[in-house]
# Entry
Amino acid sequence: MSRSRSILLIGIGAAVIPLAVLAVPEPQDAAPAGWWMNEPIRLVQTNLRETDTALDPQRLVRQLADFPANVLLMGMGGIAAHFPSKLEFHFVSPYLPPGRDTFGEVLQEAHAHKIRVIGRFDFSKVAKPVYDAHPGWFFRKSNGEPATYNGLYATCINGAYYQQAAMKILEEALERYDVDGLFFNAPGQPASDYSGNRYGMCNCESCKTRFQALYHRPLPSAPDADYNRFIAASVQEVTRNIGNLIHSKRSKAGFFTYTQDYVDGATSESNTSIARGLPLWPYSASESVGRARDNQPSKMPLNLSIGFVDIPYRFASVPPAEIQIRLYQNMAHGSGPAFVVVGTLDQEDRTGIAAARPVFRFHADHDDLYVGQESAARVLLLSGGGGRGGGGGGRGGGQDGYR
# Structure
């Protein structure tokens, strides 16, 4: 049955539209929704370090069940594999005990306790042995040097690592493990490292060749409109290829990353960078989940409440009230609580875990109310470029007006 809704549009910032009443057609019937749309989600992400590869799978799953979480987002591969990958260009964590398969063991244990598992990949950097074997695959700064950070080498979205090797890594993982989904950290072309050092444009041979073929001129000396379109198209191409590969190998698995195209759920973060101006924006979770659900209601947003203060302070917990308000805002806008720690759940500073757990328990006690939610709002707020969520600190008339 076809219906239409009347929506009042109010433009804020650069995208100003006069007040108007528009008829918006209801979406047509689509393919059956995945588990992420039909089940309540209580997600915990363990952002594993190499030293965590030797974790105890049974202990981790017991902790998740007690949280109580029903989805685990766990490190799988990319920078370091937490399973015995057979590919020579996939660096296996040196802390993986001989004869062990950490990811596979956790997956089996979690599924036995009805906890879904989303494998986490990060293809933005690689270990030195991979770079040494294939130096032509990676990002090159204007002076021809690789972009490095703490011994890791930055990849290029157009390079052979992202375009070919990463796809083989994913194919191996998808054929080996019955994952419920895959998540990708830091997708796209790197712009800077975690210390804020800018990389500039990539000048690798792949970028030069592809840009020349598309625009019939050499790479510019500084980013221009053609270059920005070029990188955006490259990111879209890789994202589409990853999505197609996941759905061809595991039709019931979801694809999640920090974009909205070709994915099953758009990922965002509520985090606490100390570089942001004060006062902190307290509605980052509301904004991120609301924005994603209103833009694409057929996709489930995952807004990750980062439990640590900032990358340089990754073992200091965010204040409890800040963690709880973000988790509750997720729930209020149609998603589920999602909490992130570095390492395992054996944290020295357990403040964040103690704050998140009662929110997860409340959700578990009432999870029949947190499935199939739809926004009752009929006023659409249009943002003109700012307002990306994440607790951001951008100031100015447009941003203040939007907020």
Observations:
- The radius of gyration is 22 Å.
